[in-house]
Design goal:
The protein has 801 residues and is of the alpha+beta class. Helices cover 26% and strands 29% of the residues. Belongs to the phenylalanyl-tRNA synthetase beta subunit family. Type 1 subfamily.
């Protein structure tokens, strides 16, 4: 919200510097972003009267004689297309400073002396977006009553100071000059003085010309007035100055009046050309899916049932609360005007403006709230201004539909409630004084009092809101400062945090480096490495297509990181990430997705570089699987690996599903060559594990056990097995013998080939036995081996070699 300080001082009697005002407002709840002076950096700019203007042959230039209040006219060469004799203009005399600190000097153009410069508003540093269209491509023409030689700053309102307020959603009442004036008056204990317009109505009734109706529960009220026989013309300079200082482009007196009322009251308004209506009845209703409307910006908008439209003859003529339609806009030929003031549902307006990416001064105010108590007054004020500036005839009465509650909202509390929460010792008279400054009526006593909150402060509805108002106006700096009293508590990590830290330590111990990738990706990549994809959760308004859907795997994002590094000649990669994936089993537009903590890693390139002694060692499946096994060993969980061929993005012969107690918790394997080609990466191995599922298999923290004092005994055994027998099956068979002194099983050799019959393979294991209470004898170990051999023969058809 841009606030003109000169305008503000007309509404409330204050005489302080803007720096002091900014400090006061910021410490009472409305932050001031900054204060700017439009004239800062400009100098020696005066009003000039063009006495004569002659075209320079064969050029676009004009040789002008300009009266700038000096003894003699000043000769200036000007190239503006709209310069002509008889007009008042902005002149920068030699020595002047204009935008970008550019200094004006005497000079010659095409051999003609030029003693200054006739300026446009752009050359004074004003942005194109707020300059009147008629002067957008030329110089600014000033009012005829300006005096040659006078400073240009008061004429254009450049001597003002513009205060930029950062308005939070709960203080939308400050999105108007009246709201800001009430706030400043409360801070300084002053009275507000708002302009009053007398309205002279004709005998003719507005209801004879138009009718209004509401056919939507998103429209709370709709009011209209009719002003006939207006003269469309540029607004007076003072009005244009106010609008430009607020960041709004002046259009004409009709449109500018609606924008002026918007700034003064915070009430959005719209003006229709009545003669362009096809019917006399205006209906505010929900749009129909597929309806179209060309808005004032000449864009065709396709509407949905969530939008509000203002219709005439059942045809949309405006997008309610957002922007008017082109078919009924005010132009130079307009004579009869319908003024609209309404209150629309803020949520609906927010949806519409967001979906169409169409933000306006009106929509921003409807989204945050409107003062119900001033809708009627704002409409009459605008009609009176059209009568004053456009010589219009205002027809009698407002035509309206719908009702708004305008009575004050009563909120009760007590002095004890206030003092306990603020830590103060305020009296009832102190509280009365605070609410008197705010303009709130108070009844009751210290034990229980009631505050009547006017509708202009719709953010106040409960006791806590009253406490906040008291604290703001009383002064936050006056509140006592005390340290919070609380017993000391011991902090502790959650089970999830402990697991993440353990996994991170183990991963980095195996040589992996942590990365953080985007949780948003493309819909295709979101489910690429997912065994059982669920509904994709997509953003309605993504920043880019590449970041539009929540991921259901981490691997695809890691492969983007691999590709980024490979493209920059960094080909040996070992990276991991602990992050969240998102599964949606319900309606993606309504239900929140389920978040799953996940660990993933990716390996590419060489494990060991080549040097003069050793050969290079590339990453392979067993290296990746070894990292998973190291993780399982350190966490003391038992994982199983089963060959997997159903994941299309992974190599069918080099991929395994990871099982914990028979439940799938992840995978490890090589990225399918075609997938790797799509990402532009070399041979890469990846793994992904559900940490939440892994946590369920963790054992309770173990207590200290004394190191065994007795020696361990090892025995090796070579087994001849069917070729399709897996290591996991062998280990399961050995463990099924239930030899409680068996402490370790290690596979140290696998062989298939010469001297081994077809369909068979040899697997050699080292078994370790240890008794914590005594040394094992050879006889005991022999019995253990017999039991294990028997289990292997029976369960996996092993032959001990």
């Amino acid at each position: 919200m841009l606030v003109s300080y000169k305008w503000l001082k007309e509404l409330v009697d204050i005489d302080v510097t803007t720096a002091e005002l900014a400090e006061k407002m910021s410490t009472t709840g409305i932050e001031v972003e900054g204060v700017e002076t439009p004239a800062e950096g400009l100098s020696n700019l005066v009003v000039g009267h063009v006495l004569s203007c002659e075209d320079v042959p064969d050029t676009h230039l004009h040789l002008c004689q300009v009266d700038t209040g000096d003894d003699e006219p000043r000769q200036i060469v000007c190239g503006a297309p709209n310069v002509r004799a008889g007009i008042k203009v902005i002149v920068a005399i030699p020595g002047a400073r204009i935008a970008d600190n550019y200094k004006i000097k005497k000079g010659k153009i095409r051999g003609m002396e030029s003693l200054g410069m006739i300026c446009s508003l752009q050359e004074l540093g004003l942005p194109d977006s707020i300059i009147p269209k008629e002067f957008a491509d030329g110089i600014q023409i000033l009012p005829e009553d300006t005096v040659p030689g006078a400073s240009i700053f008061p004429v254009l309102g450049l001597d003002d100071e513009i205060i930029e307020l950062s308005i939070t959603p709960n203080r939308a009442d400050a999105l108007s000059m009246r709201g800001v004036a009430h706030e400043v008056a409360a801070i300084y204990g002053k009275e507000v003085h708002f302009p009053v317009k007398s309205l002279d109505e004709a005998d003719k009734l507005a209801s004879d010309v138009i009718q209004v109706a509401i056919e939507s529960d998103k429209v709370l009220t709709y009011k209209a007035r009719v002003v006939e026989n207006v003269t469309v013309a540029p607004s007076p300079q003072w009005l244009q100055n106010l609008l430009m200082n607020a960041g709004i482009r002046p259009i004409n007196n009709i449109v500018d009046v609606t924008n002026y009322v918007l700034l003064l009251f915070g009430q959005p308004m719209h003006a229709f050309d009545l003669d362009k209506f096809e019917d006399k009845k205006i209906v505010a209703r929900d749009a129909r899916a597929g309806e179209k409307l060309i808005t004032l910006d000449a864009e065709e908008r396709e509407l949905t049932a969530d939008d509000i439209v203002i219709t005439v003859a059942d045809k949309p003529v405006a997008l309610g609360g957002v922007m008017g339609g082109q078919s009924t806009e005010i132009d130079a030929s307009s004579k009869n005007v319908v003024l609209e003031a309404a209150v629309f549902d803020g949520k609906s307006i927010r949806k519409t403006s967001g979906r169409l990416n169409l933000r306006s001064e009106s929509s921003s105010r409807f989204e945050k709230g409107i003062n119900y108590d001033s809708v009627f007054e704002a409409l009459d004020f605008a009609a009176a201004m059209l009568q004053e500036l456009g010589n219009g005839t205002v027809l009698a009465g407002q035509v309206e539909a719908g009702n708004l509650p305008t009575e004050a909202v009563e909120v009760s509390t007590s002095i004890d409630y206030v003092n306990v929460r603020l830590g103060t010792e305020l009296t009832y008279s102190d509280v009365e004084e605070v609410f008197a400054k705010l303009g709130f009526a108070v009844t009751g006593n210290a034990e229980n009092f009631t505050v009547s909150v006017p509708r202009r402060r719709w953010d106040i509805s409960i006791q806590a809101d009253l406490v906040e108002e008291i604290a703001r106006i009383y002064g936050y700096d006056k509140l006592p400062t005390t340290l919070p009293e609380a017993g000391a508590t011991a902090g502790e990590l959650t089970a999830s945090q402990k697991l993440r830290r353990k996994v991170r330590t183990i991963a980095e111990g195996t040589g992996l480096s942590e990365i953080i990738s985007y949780a948003l990706t493309t819909p295709e990549k979101a489910v690429e490495f997912t065994a059982q994809p669920t509904n994709i959760t997509e953003l309605m308004w993504p920043m880019t297509v590449d970041r539009s859907a929540l991921r259901q795997n981490i691997v695809s994002g890691m492969l983007d990181t691999v590709a980024y590094n490979v493209n920059r000649k960094n080909s040996n990669l070992a990276i991991y990430e602990i992050g969240t994936i998102f599964h949606q089993t319900g309606d993606a537009k309504v239900d929140l997705p389920q978040e799953v903590e996940t660990f993933a890693f990716a390996l590419s390139g060489l494990v060991q570089e080549k040097d003069f002694q050793t050969q290079p060692v590339p990453v392979d499946f067993f290296y990746a699987k070894g990292i998973v096994e190291a993780l399982a060993e350190k966490l003391d969980v038992t994982l199983e690996f089963v060959a997997e061929k159903d994941l299309s993005s992974l190599h069918p012969g080099r991929t395994a599903t990871i099982l914990l107690k028979g439940e799938k918790i992840g995978f490890v394997g090589q990225v399918h060559p075609q997938t790797a080609k799509n990402y532009g990466i070399p041979e890469t191995y990846v793994a992904e594990i559900n940490l939440q599922a892994l946590a369920s298999g963790l054992k309770a923290d173990q207590t200290f056990r004394e190191i065994n004092k007795f020696p361990a005994v090892s025995r090796d055994m070579a087994l001849l097995l069917p070729a399709d027998t897996t290591h996991n099956q062998v280990v399961t068979a050995i463990e099924s013998a239930k030899v409680k002194r068996l402490t370790a099983i290690k596979l140290f050799d696998v062989y298939a080939g010469a001297n081994i019959e077809s369909g068979k393979k040899s697997m050699a294991y080292s078994l370790t036995f240890q008794n914590p209470e005594a040394s094992l004898t050879d006889e005991e170990v022999a019995k253990f081996m017999e039991k294990i051999t028997k289990a292997l023969v029976e369960q996996v058809s092993a032959e001990v070699r």
